[in-house]
Amino acid sequence: MRVTANSETCAVSSLCVYRVPGVFDQDEDGLVRILEERPAAELHEEIRRAARGCPTKSIQVHEDEGAPASPTAPA
Amino acid sequence: MSTQTPPRYPFAWTPPMQVPEALRHVHDSSAMEVTLPSGDVALLVTRYKDVRALFADKRLSRNIARPDCARISKDNDLFMDPNIDPDPPEHTRVRSLVTKAFTARRIEALRPYVQQVADELLDEMAAGPQPAELNEAFAFPLPIKVICKLLGVPAEDRDRFRGYVDGFLSVTKLPPEKVGECRQNLWKYLGDLIESKRENPGDDLVSELIRVRDDEDDSRLNEHELHFWTQGLLIAGYVTTASQIGTGTAVLLHRRDLVREIQADWSLVPSAVEELLRTQIMGSSVGTMRYAIDDIPLSDGSVIKKGTSVLLSEEGANVDAEVFECPFELDIRRKENHHMTFGAGLHYCVGAALARMELQVATETLLRRFPDIRLAAKAEELPRALGGFMEGFTEIPVEW
Ligand code: HEM
Ligand code: SF4
What are the start and end residues of every segment in region (Disordered) (chain A) (predicted)? Predict the structure, then answer.
């Protein structure tokens, strides 16, 4: 999984940052920033939830892009 | 086309503590016409999918100061200000000056202060007579103190501005002259506040906005916008949160089993808070009024015609069975609770993270401090605040 976010549409809800703090962060203005583009597998479910819950749909989850070190087969 | 008058909105509440019965029948189509307190008709969009998409749709303008837009109240220009452009890009320019004060870091830095205020208020409540009235003892003073600190408003002024704000938010409660007087007094009060902060700036959001406004090289904020946003933040900063603390707690206390569950596992507090928000038990969605500047198709194939006045039903979306399992049940363990109580899209509530934090602190502190706290009145007899923007319970007697 690879995760990206669009800070131009982010509404600074802070929801993703509260949900998965190691992956999502905010810049000085509160706009979303990704800390870990290829997060560990145990975080995937929460990241999907964060993406579904983003009030501006600013988070994209690219399921079929595995971590470079240990690529996962597409589901 | 039906010739009957569309049903009245806000819908009537169903006692003792449930969401309006009418909500059980709103999902047959994507939208329904409703009659507002003014007598005007608007289109209420009710399905989650549509409500969520339309909150982010630029074809719905939030500028409702138009002659052909439905009015919420005929006695009050609620949410209408012809000198403010509430649509992007103008709106976004100002909003981004404000949102930076609401990052997770800034909110978490405020948590110890909120905890301290909650502890102090409950100490006072414990020392006073029983039953106590939860709104005045706790639900209102807590968010008022917090928003005052954040904005740099003297908390001693609260008796003054609360009266003005009540009038400002009247739908049918007060006659138009009285509403006008309150609006003027509130505007003047905030003008005086801004002037005094100009002379003696502090470490607060209003002082920060004044600095942006007065910087000659910075054209992001004009004087009217400074005034308007200070007013909006002060009002939105406590009215909704206070109603949710009081009324949400009343709903919870009515369910002793849920109180016990939380007391056995405090990690349930955040999801319980979200679930109480989802029921939207303290108000309707009259504040979401918008105006269609183009035709907009809905999920059932119908079309919102250009020129229609539209309300986005948060409470309707929140009980849509397509999204929420057993939507009329209170489930404090709901894992995925993306309710619409704070809206969505570019107007998503600026203060949502703050409100959530306050609600979590309030709920946990109250249930820890008074393990046996309960309602001291029959649930079905709690009076609702009708005729105003918020419709939470006006009196919530509790004993412990
Ligand atoms: C439980 C408490 C609260 C609820 C249910 C609530 C609900 C909402 C909703 C539904 C909207 C969007 C309205 C729309 O799109 O038409 C909104 C906007 C807003 N809220 Fe809140 N709110 C709460 C607390 C707060 C707090 C604590 C603050 C301030 C500190 C705040 C400040 C604002 C502001 C400034 C907006 C306008 C945002 C914009 O237009 O971009 N709210 N709120
Ligand atoms: S959930 Fe969405 S809107 Fe909220 S901070 Fe994250 S990216 Fe921004």
Answer: 54-75
